[in-house]
Amino acid sequence: MARLSQSSIEQVKEASDIVEVISAYTDLRRSGARFSGLCPFHDERTPSFSVDPREKLYHCFGCGVGGDVIKFVEEKEGLAFAEAVEALAERYGVEIEREEEDPRVEEARRRRARLGELLERTAAFYVSFLWDAGEATKAREYLAGRGLGEEVLRRFGVGFAPSAWDTVLTRGQAAGYPPAELGAAGLLTRNKRGNPYDSFRRRIMFPIRDGRGRMQGFGGRALSADQKPKYKNSPEGELYRKKRTLYGIDQARGAIAKAGRAVVVEGYTDVLAAHQAGITEAVAVMGTAITPEQVQLLAQHSDEVVLALDADRAGREAMLRAQRAASGKRVRLRVAAMKPGEDPADTLEGVAPGSDAAEAFTAMIEAADDLPVFHVRMLLGDGDLSSPAGRDRTLDEVVPVLRSMPDSITREELEREVASRLEADPGLVARRVAAKERAPAREATVVRAPATEPPPPLSGRERRERSLLEMSIALPADGREFLERLTPEHLSSPLVARARVWLLDHLEEPMDGLPREDEELVGLVTQLVMGAEREPASREAMELTFLSLDLTMIDGEIATATEGGGDPPVDLQRRRANLAERIAHFETSA
Ligand SMILES: [Zn+2]
Questions:
Q1: Contact 513, 452 (CB under 8 A)
Q2: Whole-prediction pTM
């Protein structure tokens, strides 16, 4: 496939209305030449998200994200760059041209296709081995014992890996795949002497595919108790990325879109049991916690996600992490109340579609609580309600969760429930929820995700260096000179130094061709470009800012030189005095 031409990418950016695109995720209000609103990437109550309709850029001063309209669509809709361009092109009616592929990109694409094909062949082999080999009898018995029929096992391509050390190695080589490729596909491991052997042996194999059905890797379940680990997944690699993967999404995609909801269960056999019982919108996360990437992936297909996880401690923790993962995303998260120690595979074991048990499970999904409601009840259940002090602590924990809910009948009823459980006056609970946010640190840690920690405030030096870079963008003719005069020693961090180098080469169009994988750089350059419009720039201001950065640098050198005591070297003293004088001169003339 040929790649998108640069001019098409430009046309798409040109035609896109970034305010309209972003407005689907957050309400934007005009303020001056900009629009601002609550950040759709982190949880906040005062707007720090800014959109520049002219430059077509966004930036959040709270969490630091930023970029152009294509980047926004990539992030919010979980698309790759080319897919995001295509989505915008379609929306804004731009005809896309393609160019001959860069040979290296073409090569990487060919390699991924080859590895995918290798995984596909291996999956087919595991399937035939499960159904035909004598060695797989115990595996077939185990699966039958879990109530899983041949139809659903074949639909999901479940297989069995032989116990021999070299079956996949030998078969792969015979089919023309060298050990290096088998290794890159995650099928081989090397022992201490460097000899390769099959990664998956004597395991029930669950092929893991992306939403478009392309092979990503395998999950392998041990057959006997002495095999460690019990579950083994493909290593993270070119194809398999655990945090972006949802088991069963290829089978569940259509049903999720149709039902308008996704049901998240714990493991491979839970997914199979659910699908067999006719609950075909079920997927599993790879691990205990759902990641923001997975929430995003699900949000592409539906706006409601029901977590049907074992309600024991681990499951509860997973749900709270899910809440953080979903913060700022337009997804309604709900929790189906499973009994402690119970999971869907038990409940649905051998259950047929339309049977009473399947109906009961569906009813439980439909009656799922919103996550905040679940969270509040969990805190009430865990709290020490026997003493006034314990009830106060529980109230402290519950208030921020209540506050995160929209003002609604659901919230009001929950407030009454809280009041009654805490033996408190309903008015007290309501007042606490309505009170201006003044959350003690303990509360904040309960509800806030790490990604939403506000960045530390900038130091004076950092503000000055950013201001100089912004002015350089605003006045590129003079700016180039100052960028050249700056050295890495003037700058407070390698990131700012990278931004300087980038601007030296791209001062006219700083946003064009930014390396998108370098998220920090994209964030900083976006912020600088947006700042460039706001900052009143002049050659004098640039000179003064440069001199003050120079002064900071010399002060640093002096500090280093006098660390062990003694006077600073004369040349440094002279340079400093000279500089201070020039700064004073500038300040008086300005
Ligand atoms: Zn933000």
A1: no
A2: 0.59
Residues within 5 Å of ion ligand 1, judged at the Cβ atom? 39, 41-42, 60, 62-63
CA distance linking residue 223 with residue 241, whole number of Å: 25
Distance 38 CA to ligand 1 centre (A): 8
The SS3 call for residue 457 is coil
3-state secondary structure 14-53: HHCCHHHHHHCCCCEEEECCEEEECCCCCCCCCCCEEEEC
Contact 42, 36 (CB under 8 A): no
CA–centroid distance, 534 to ligand 1, in Å, is 20
E-assigned strand segments in 194-243: 196-198, 203-209, 215-222, 231-233
Question: Ligand 1 centroid vs 453 CA: distance in angstroms?
Answer: 10
Handedness of CA 226, 230, 234, 236 (dihedral sign): negative
Rounded distance, CA 216 to CA 474, Å?
A: 46
Q: How far apart are CA 441 and CA 430, in angstroms?
A: 21
Residue 525: partners with Cβ closer than 8 Å, 6 or more residues away:
499, 502, 503, 510, 511, 514
204-234 per-position pLDDT tens digit:
999 999 887 889 999 999 998 899 899 999 9
347 vs 335: CA distance, rounded Å: 16
The model's pLDDT over 112-130, given as tens digits with 9 standing for 90+, comes to 889 999 999 999 999 999 9
Beta strands in 405-531 (DSSP E): none
Q: Is 219 helix (H, G, I), strand (E, B) or coil?
A: strand
CA dihedral 230, 236, 240, 244 (to 10 degrees): 90
Q: Tell me the C-alpha to C-alpha distance, in Å, between residue 240 and each of 209, 498, 517.
A: 9, 30, 18
